[in-house]
Amino acid sequence: MSTGSSISGGSAKLNFLDKIIRDYSGLAIIMVAIFLFVFLYGMITAPNFLTIFNLKTIVRDAALVGIMAIGLTFVTLSGNFFLLSMKETAALCIIAFATGMSYGWGFELSFLFTMCFALVAGIFQGALIGLGGNPIVVTLGAAGVLYGLGAYWSDNLVVSYRRPHGAEWLGTGSFLGLPNITVAFILIAISAELVLRKTNFGRQVYLIGANRAAGKATGHENFSMAIKVCTIASVCSAFVAIAFSAQVSSAQVNYFSSEFGSSGDMTIMVIATVMVGGNSIMGGYGSTMRSSLGAIFISSIDNMMVLHGFNSGPRVFAVGLMIVFSIIVFALVRRGSRTEE
Amino acid sequence: MEPLLELSNINRSFSAIDALRSVDFSIFPGEVMGLVGENGAGKSTLVKIISGFDNEYTGSLKLNNKETRFSSPGKAEKMGIAIAQQELSLIPTMSVAENIFLTGDVAPVFATKTALVMKAKDYLSEVGLDYLDPYLLVDRLSVGEQHLVEVARLIAHDPQILILDEPTAALGESDSIRILDMVKRLSDRGKSIIYVSHRLDEIFKICDRITVLRDGKSIDALPISELDVNGLVEIMLGRELKNMFPSRNKKVKGEPLIKIKNLWPDGLLQPVEFEIYAGEILGLAGQLGSGSGEVLAAIAGAHKSRSGTLEFGDLVFLPRSPKEAIEAKIAYCSEDRKYDGLFLGRPIIENISSPSLKSISKFGVRSTRAEKELSQDISAKFTVDASRLTSEAGVLSGGNQQKVALGKWLSINPKIILVNEPTRGVDVGARAEIYQKLRDLAEQGSAIVIASTDIQEITNLPDRVISFYRGAMINEIKLEDMSAIKILSSITDPYSETSMQKEEN
Question: Is A216's CB within 8 Å of B340's CB?
């Protein structure tokens, strides 16, 4: 939750604090203040929170959820709601990748093989949504299909492959002291943000998300947009599946239902990340940078609570609370930023 | 006689902007008070204060000579002040009778359908809908009838003061007439009515006095007998408005720019054929449901057609989507800018560049400078404040929104510009600017086609008019025999001679 990015320019005479009091509602200020207080208190009192090692751990933990959330952000910003099939896409893809690796196809070929599944899943869901299908219904259906395929293919068993297998660099390697998966997260976050800000495709995402009818009237149609954004989200899912498999040298369809975040469910974590970042659920407003920061933010809260010795119950509770909190604050901030003529 | 409602020295400011500055307003029993002013002059703010939606003002509000302050719309309604807003609050899937008793407080305890219908009939006849079956679902009614049902619902609470906020803005001619008749009938029964409208002809037809707001200040209410249209416009603008409509093009046309052949949009009874010439403004006249808007949308690929082709230079085609039309340099503004004319939540600059992203980018990457230059250029042409380009389009007033919705199309250098209702919900000042701009574009060689239900506009702006009536094209009216009466008769009752004489009287 970055309050810094949403502060609008005011007259130069007012100082920073006065400007905030003028532009934002009291409730939003109080909520952010309470939150900052709790966060800072937790940060200072948590043992070993502010060490370089721990900060690197936070970003690393955020990376996998973060990359998927960046992909999903495109879908949300374009007004196509959410893909509820994020973890199922990853489940099928991780089986595909591990199967390829276990056959000895090598990293590159297994990677391409896996991406084919992601492309088909993305294009298929995108086309159905683009033709007017309800995103919830379409992606819930797709979730069942994708998971079912993965479970059938792997017989619900763990597919494993032996080290050295040529994918360690992505799973456990590092670059200049940063884990490669962290590097990938940073690169993907930056390039996604650049695509949104600088390219026509990025602008179309915002325009169609802001008003689909006006988008159609100005020549930007949601059909091709839905296919593109769903494909981006699926490819991000597949990438995360590959990175995770490379880390554990194995695959199982339930990895993404039990291993991630405090609640364990990848789809829920990814959607939570997009929401905590303050992206508009109706589309047209937000950015992938917000989702990236949202991922780091959730990860740091989680980390702090672990250091304080909380078990998973309170941590799930905290994530839930943060979603509600950030939705209220962002709604208040956004209402305040509009002045009537 | 004491005024029924009297507001004096009302002030209201929104952070930095003073919306109202020491405004005075009064209304007597049985009076019809017109409330006029440009967009942003403070009409809505004043109406919100009177009806209890806004109570963060300073100043005094006296009802029946007693100092009052409404803390909520509900309180105002209890004190006998009812407001019919522009956006209707009816439930389309419920019957007329059920909608009239929606709030429940005036309905009988055992509210069977029959009981409601019996009771509803009185209120319906009061608003001139006695012919209407109260069992009908609201979504089967015309928009004008829906407005009247809304008023009937308000009348059920027996208000002393009824506020009508632009009741005819979305209505065609015959529905508007119904509303005006109703206002007269209600004022004869002793109700006071505050009538807010941009349509000055209506104001002169029904109002007893007029209060003008200008830049948040009120100008003393004047009786209608002391005013004429030009005088009123002068007071509204604070300057003289020479002629709202630019002079027309009488030159010979030459070859048509585009031939429309056998075009049969859904909703029309038969195919239409006509030609559009470069340099002219062509008007499609017709009421709501006449098909004029559908023809316009079909040319732009925004409405389905059963058949038809456009012969446009070497191009012979029928656009199946707005995208194809835009590629052929056909621009189209629909009648509802909030629905598909603007991205309200996005900055103005993005709205302006939205149809022409390709032209300001290389390999899909946008040039920030090219986009800025393009939008500054267009905002200068349409007198939109360039310093506001980065603010959301939604914060602009209706007039400025319309200028952005229209101006964005200049970015594709259109050859044909189709505009449905070019000035709906637009104040007089911005209206004149839009007319002038359309004329300029025509003179630069574009072909302009407008569809409008505003009879003043359709009589005075176009060089040529094609009239539509109930899904059929009626006739073409040339500049030399263009008159309001002639157009009105061909869009309201083209097959009857008697109606023409009635209109003349």
Answer: yes
